[in-house]
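so i finally got all the pieces together for this one. its three components total, 801 residues if u count the protein bits. some of the lines might not be protein, just check the labels. i wanna see the whole assembly predicted at once instead of chain by chain like last time, that was a mess tbh
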Amino acid sequence: MNDFSEEDAFEAAAVPLSQRAMARPAMPDFDLDGLNPAQREAVETVNGPVLMLAGAGTGKTKALTTRIAYLLATGNAQPHEILAVTFTNKAAREMKLRIGALIGDAQEGMRWLGTFHSVCVKQLRRHAELVGLKSGFTILDTDDQIRLMKQLIEAAGIDAKRWPPRMLAGIIDAWKNKAWTPDKVPASDSGAFDYQGVPLYTAYQKRLRDLNAVDFGDILLHMVTIFQTHPDILHQYQRWFRYILVDEYQDTNVAQYLWLRLLAQGHKNICCVGDDDQSIYGWRGAEVGNILRFETDFPGAHVVRLEENYRSTPHILAAASSVIAENKDRLGKTLFTSRTDGEKVRLTGYWDGDEEARCIGEEIEAMQRGTRGNAPVGLDGMAILVRASHQMRAFEDRFLSIGLPYRVIGGPRFYERMEIRDAMAYFRLAVSHDDDLAFERVVNTPKRGLGEKAVQTIQRTARENNVSLVEGARIVCQNRLLGGKGLKELTGFVQSLDRWQQTVYAATPPLIDDDAVLDDGFVTAAPVYDHIALAEMILDESGYTGYWQNDKTPEAPGRLENLKELVKALENFDNLQGFLEHVSLIMENETEEQGEKVSIMTLHAAKGLEFPVVFLPGWEEGLFPSQRSMDENGLKGLEEERRLAYVGITRAEEICAISFASNRRVYGQWQSQLPSRFVDELPSKHVDVLTPSGLNSGAGMVASDLHEKAHSADVYNSPGWKRLQARGQKPNAPRAQNVTIDATAESAFTQGDRVFHQKFGYGYVDGIEGDKLVIAFDKAGTKHVVARFIVSADAADDVPF
DNA sequence: AAGGCGATGTTTTTT
DNA sequence: ACATCGCCTT
């Protein structure tokens, strides 16, 4: 088991099953009785194609992991003979964890459980030469991709203003998702990008090959190409993977679909799990058709429907089912539950987005305290799910000023941050002076007085001598092709690169270890050196750390913090090379902060999660369903939006509160909004129409009121609105209740203090109101903020590296 | 070469 | 409203 050469894999596969089962160490027993009949069927139907249609909250992961455990325990497969693919690292991690809980350490042997990309990279590193690459190819991120495209567009003499690189990247990415190599792009698409799309795609692929690099789309596409052109290799993998399992099948694109179909062609032991009603990634190439066609693709497929829901109340399920029923082209499932309790789905119309944010904030506080008649709900159990991330702002601003702790899920990912990519570029250069993209990125970061012209000189010199940019820069320095300051800086830069590289390669390469072979299917010479010290040295000597230390923008302390995180992440690897090889595929969000916090995220980010209490604000025409989605994709777009609504509602366990506002600021303009058509699609007998104050005075409202209300957007005449008017309510009238007075906060600051806030940056204290400080921020304007979120500006400056 | 100013285009996001 | 981007000024 400690060698993983191809030959051995063949040997293993050739041994009769019965014998292997006997040789296998006993597995801890696990329990099939905990499954319902449908789940059990999905687990026990091991041979042949199986489509597990798993509605929201029906125990899909349980069935999937139990199926794997069952395959192993019954001796149908060894751990390394199972291919199990997911879309995200998070899903893969959870699956590993849960399989581990079922079968214990044997889980460790599942070398082919991972994301589509991680599994394909593993394969591609073994066969890279078949597509003109070397095994150590680098994986470009989106930023590198776009910079590369920009160069190609300019080289082709195309106006990059009218034809932005971003757009080309999008087009090529879409083509790759459809598994179209440049020669396979159909004539119907030849007009793309001013008829230059295909030639530029060809040029781009050539450039990638020269750089020994791939982008994310290539990872799948190259493997499909290899399988299609090398039947022997395909056959080997077909024998190797006795069983294939796929999570979230409705999200697969054509390239992923082809890859799976090729691998499953032999034995057809493929089990795809998914829910056509939760297909929400059409815009990035996912083909719902893949799941709709499953039975045609795999004749004789066994279809299992998981329809018993263990998550939500009957009202919530009824609401979700009612909305999704409007979609055509469904495989059709009917969720049911044995529960009979629970309150109806709440529907509230607000005057505007600010009121919506304010009332939801109050409702959250009330539920947290349990003053709504419910048992208190922890903040971790509550979430606000929005259609588009800009909707989060209203909530963030409001929650910051009332001191309600929140956490935004999603957003920029750790390895996508500027400072992390800069640092990584330095590491890449230290490992390989051939990395031209990395050189371009950091040659003038921090500023070394090497501007566009200097870079052009370096590029020209490199091209003339047919060497890398680093070597080109060396020649530039030797021949003094650059002016005073720039020359001096560049010379120092090249010397630094040499010094760092010496540290990387001076160390004695140790013996090739088994793990390198196991993990990647290829062999790396792994030098031993203190890579953490080296990384710190690089960041220090390059002046990069100092650059951020001198930066006074509100983001700077956070960026330094991130750099520290990055260096810490190195501890998990033996050297920089190993780190760089793996990290490009682990584009994860930062580790979850602790503490009770209400979550704010997009509907997309919410897929797969669940919360006792879910708020779904902004159900307005144009916003949700998104106008753009409907304009660009018509009915298809609308149906995807509706699936998004379905995903949103089904995240809720106990309470689902949908809301819309009559007025909203859109791109700075106030706009009058109509309630979403999805509001009309809610079943009135499962809905309580509430009024903005959150008091239940609208409970007497019946279905006809709901309809009228929804259509006229007549919140002006709602009891709640009239009451607010009568009160002469001011939008930001301070509320005496709900506020915990923090005595220490008040004394900590006085008027005129220079202060710092995580989100708003620097500012001066203008006044004190209760436990809140009125602060005039340099950039964000004047705001009322709870004192405990404020630190003195001196303290903020004091973030050492 | 680097910082300031007007035109621009605004969904969703993993790997 | 707001941020990003390319161009223009210094």
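Residues 161, 390, 665-669 of chain A lie near DNA strand C (CB under 10 Å from a C1').
The radius of gyration of chain A is 29 Å.
anyway lmk what u think
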